[in-house]
Structure formats: structure tokens, C-alpha cells
Amino acid sequence: MKRQTVRTDVAIVGAGFTGLSAAHELSKAGINLALLEARGRVGGRVESQWNGLGERIDSGGQFLCEDMPELMALVRARGKTLVETYAKGEFVAQPLTGAKQVERIYHASMSIRDRMNAIAPGDPAIAGLTVAAWLDRQNDPGEAKAAFRSMIQGLWCQALEKLPLWHLIDNDRRITNEVSELQYFVLETMQSLADDLAGDLGDRLRLNTPVRTIERRPGGVRLASTTGSITARIALIAMPPMMASKLDFAPPLPAALQRALGVWQSGAVIKVQMRYATAFWRARGLSGMVMWRDPPALFACDASKDDGHPALVVFVGGPLALRWRELGDAALRTEVMARLRQALGTDADDFIDFSCRDWTDDRWSGGGYADLIIDTSATEAEKTILAGAPPVYFASSELSPSFPGYVEGAIVAGRIAAQKILREFNPQ
């Protein structure tokens, strides 16, 4: 295949929601651009796949809520259908306990989280502390601590022993929804939103184009991919920090920026979805929502598109995902079904489809749902990455001022990056 050399104003690397959003903002402003994506699809950690019944399901990022304004506006603008996640009925906790004890444990775990978030991220008293070390110092009952651990490792898909306390507090403060983040999902799949955005870009989007080298040179940058090279005035690296750190920059990035990109690690998550002939849990007065304290970071909820498509989704996160991925497909299914059977009864065995997506070591994203800082001393990492090394800039959901690690955060991050780049073209 003939290698091509393309010239443009801005080259964007990564066509997840950050790159797509940045591309749209720049395109509206009349900037010539090329959006380069290593995969054969757009969306990044948002993805859909066909299950065994021929139904399109979300195998990546899925849920949203009304407190995510940019994503909700995009859903409406693109004419998508919101499905309200079924949440009526009883919540099940594992190991099984009485309803009053479940409520007591839940409120106690949330009290730990509230206490944590009352600490200022920059408080010298927590310098160098991981979340695990801080949790060990708390005087709460063991069950409340176990529920807190399961909740945090399930949300962030990372071991508490690796998470800096200040980083978790800072992230939590930027996630401002007051209603459940599981409030809705998109009937047509979240991936369909990314596809719509991609369709607007035409031939400015180049799939199956992994960028290998980014060369900073006088007057701009040169990006080398497997299909050719692109020269541009500015490059925007719209990738998770850990994946951005693996790119080859020439000359090397400033040492502080290299270090800042290198302190992140992707989360580990496996997403499983079962389709059933009937929503048997509803008939028993259950919501389908299950949270396990043991093993931690295991969570299930109802993901039925309508009464004709009953479904449960199970998320396996953090260290548990890393252990279970080593089992192989058959043994992983056995583990998941054994836990569901304990929680919801033998009807859980009667699925008509079992679909699994392992994100623990994804080639182009590193993992899911997001990257997290794993160095307790790296308090300036985000600021350093956002400053970039002009004409090379960085953006990702992880760096967003709102909803880091979510699609909402990716959209916001992309738009902020686009405005920064536009100021380069139109200085005030």
C-alpha cells in the first residue's frame, strides 16, 4: 500500500469521545484537521457488540444520568432514546444479610466516603497515604469497611493499596451527580453516539491508523503512522495518559511531562451481560441490583432494554478482574454464575445468552473504565500534562474538570482542548 503524506492544521490522535468532541469543535471553527484512530472503530472505551441473539449491546461504557449535561444534550441532539434503568424492588447484598443490616452497612460505608471527601486533597496530614492505609486507620465496623472497599474498587477498578488518597478525593469532588449514574442508558447503544459524531467528520477521520512517532519540529509536528505521515501545526493527543506515555516522541518530551504521563495505570474491568426469557428477579420483588462485599468490586444490575429483552449486567472490577481473567472463559462464567445463583436463586442459571468483554488489558486503551494516578507524590501530574509541550497538547476524560473517567468528562475535556487550540490560531 502506498504511504501517504498529509498536511493539515491539527492532528488529533485518538477517536474516543475526547478526540471526537475536540474534532467537532475545531471543525465548526473552520480548522482543517485529521483525526487518527488505531482501531477500526471510534468510541475508545465505549463499544458495542452483537450478542448471541443478534442484539446490539453495550460492551463498554453504557450508563448516564440527567446530571451529566453535555452527554444528555448530545443524546437529545442526536435523537437517541433513553431507557430508564429498572431500579424498583429490593437491593441484594452479598453475603446475604437482613434488610435492616444491609441498610445499616450501606449507610456506614457512605459515611466513610463522606468523611473521606471532607478532607482537603492538599491536606499535609494525608500526604503519601493510599486509600487502603487511610481506611485501616478508621474505627468503623469491618462490614462497613468491606462495603466501602467494594464500592471504591468497583467504581475505579483499581486496588485501594495503589490509589493515593488525595487523588481519589479530588476525583470524587469532580463527580457531582445527585441522581444515580445508572439512571439511564441509550437504547441504540452509547456506541451509536460516537458513530454519529464520526459520520459528521467524513474523510477527516482515519481509522486503522495507529500513530507510532510524534516528531516536534520548527513550525509544527510530524506524526508517523503505519499508513504514512501527517504534518500539522498542532497535535492533540486525545488518549488515556498511560497509553499516551507509550508513544514515541522525538525529541523526548520534557522530563517532568514524561514522569507525569508515567504515573497512571488503567483500571481492570470485565463486563458480562446475560439475557433471559423473563425478568425473574422482578417477579420476586427484586431490582436486580446486587453488590458483593466478598468478593469486593463485583456488582450487578438490571440492563433490560424493555420487557421483551430482560437482561442483567455484571461488572467485575479491580484485583478480582485480574484474578478471574486468568481462569479462562468457561471458569470465569462458572464463577459469575455461582455468585448470581447465591444472590438471586437458581433462576439465574436459565440465561439464553452470555456475553463477556474483558477490558483488563485492552490493546488500545490499556483497560477500563479509566486511568488513575498510582504515585502518592504525583500531585502535579494533571497540571503538567494539561500544559503539554507545545505544539503537542494532551486531553482525556481523566484530565477533565468534571466527571473524570466518564463519557461526560471526555466530552468536556475534548471541548476544553479545542478552545485552547483555537486560541493558538486566534490569539487575543
What does this structure look like?
By secondary structure, this protein is of the alpha/beta class. The protein has helices at 17-28, 69-77, 99-117, 131-136, 142-156, 165-174, 190-201, 241-244, 255-261, 280-283, 318-324, 329-344, 381-387, 407-425, and strands spanning 4-13, 33-36, 48-50, 56-58, 63-64, 82-84, 90-94, 184-186, 205-206, 211-217, 220-225, 228-237, 248-250, 264-266, 269-276, 286-292, 298-302, 311-317, 351-358, 371-373, 392-394. It has 2 domains: 5-44 and 190-263 and 375-425, FAD/NAD(P)-binding domain, CATH 3.50.50; 88-179 and 269-358, Polyamine Oxidase, Chain A, domain 2 (Alpha-Beta Complex), CATH 3.90.660. The strands form 5 sheets. Strands 1, 2, 9, 10, 11, 12, 13 and 21 form an 8-stranded mixed beta sheet that branches. A 6-stranded mixed beta sheet has the order 7-16-17-18-15-19. The radius of gyration is 22 Å and the shape is globular. The two termini are 44 Å apart. InterPro entries: Amino_oxidase, FAD/NAD-bd_sf, Flavin_amine_oxidase, Flavin_MAO. Its cofactor is FAD. Keywords: Oxidoreductase. Substrate binds at residue 315.
Radius of gyration: 22 Å
What does the average pLDDT come to? 96
CATH architecture of the largest domain: Alpha-Beta Complex
Write down how many β-strands occur, each being a DSSP E stretch of 2 or more residues.
21
Largest sheet: 8 strands, mixed
CATH class of the largest domain: Alpha Beta
Describe this protein with a few key phrases.
single chain; 428 residues; alpha/beta; FAD/NAD(P)-binding domain; Polyamine Oxidase, Chain A, domain 2; 2 domains; eight-stranded mixed beta sheet; 25% strand; globular; Flavin_amine_oxidase; Amino_oxidase; oxidoreductase activity
